[in-house]
Every structure is written in C-alpha cells, then in structure tokens.
Amino acid sequence: MKELLLMLADIWMIFVGFFYGWKLIRRYGNYLLGLEWFIIAVSGSNFLVWSVLGGDEGSPMYSIAYFLDAFTRSVGVSLILIMGLMRVTHRYKPTLAVDIGVFALGIVAALYLRQFHGHGLHVVSATFYVVVNAVSTAFLAYLSWRLWKIRAGGLAIGAALATAAATAIAVMYDFFPIPGDDEYGTVFYIFALTTWGTQLFVYFLSYRALHDHNVATGAEPASDERSVARA
Does pTM top 0.85 for this prediction? Predict the structure, then answer.
C-alpha cells in the first residue's frame, strides 16, 4: 500500500511539473519557473523509473537523482523560484543572459555539493539547504501577503500552507526522520512528493492570480498565449 501511495505522489508531482511548467512558458513566457518546474518533473520521473528498476544505489540514475535534488534544493526552489515569481510581484524581467547564468549557477552548485554526499559530510549540504529554504520561505510569506492584498484569500492561505509544509519537509529531510519509517524513508517521501507537487500547483495558481491582477490594473500588458517569445 505504501509503495502505491509513493508512486501516486510521484506521478502527481511529475504531472504538475510538466503540465504547469509548460503553461508558465507558453502562456507567460516565464522560462525561469517553467524550466524549474520541468527539472522537478524530470527528477520525479527519474526517481520513478529508478524505483521500478530496483533502486540500485550503484545505478547512474541514483547519481542523476542526487544531482537534480541538489540543483533544486540549492538554487532551484530558492533563487530561481524567487526571481521567477518577482515577475508578478515586482515586474522583474531578467534578460536571457541572466536566465542562462542562474541555471549555470545551479549546475555548479549541484556539482560542488555532490562532494558532501555520504562519508558523514552530508550535514554540510543539509544545513545549507535549510538556510536557503528559510530565505525562500520569507519571500513566499511575502507572496501570500500580496495574494491577500489583492483579495485572493483562498490562494493566500493555500500558498502559506504549502510553504509551511515544504519548510517542515526541508527540516525533516536530513535531520528529523519520521519515527517508525522504513530504511528507505517511504512515508517521508509520500509526504514530500505530495507536498512538492502541491507547491508547484499552488504557486502556479498564485502566479496566474497576480498576473491577472496586474493586467487588470494596467501594471502589466496581457500575455499573448500564442507566442513563447519574451514580453
């Protein structure tokens, strides 16, 4: 039963990542968020296939999983997420060079953090992940406030709850395993994958609500859904 729930949670995250990632690019031209959503979906897909094939830690897919996880936890759902959401909170539109640069930074960070995997050094990267998550949480609290300010109360509460759940997952990830969980952390990953998928879903809805509000108030031109070119 736990294995089925784990698979469903992973499929949920994969679907949300690909589906809403494409919408962020196609509808809003937001490559920062769209590509990060894709990366999370690819990570989930890799994890699903790796698990189905037996979960061998010697498999290249295990190394890929760690790299993608490090990318997302270090730069993806921190700097990239904040910069992407600033499109609707501060009308910030980075140049193509900035887009490329921040993803390159994520790759470098993930490769560097790889050295701390195992050998008792994981506490170094784990602590770093918690710190950057705290920074992201502060910005996401601001996002919830902005949603509340435009009278999107339901989304404001949803975003706040998703952020709180993700923060709890980030702290539990390396420091506080769930009592009674198995050696693979199955129960933890059921909660984690469900939470991460819900984050992507709620943040997309939040982005859409703020974008529509900006358009309605004349702060931002309407997006051309037929074009993927930058605004």
Answer: yes
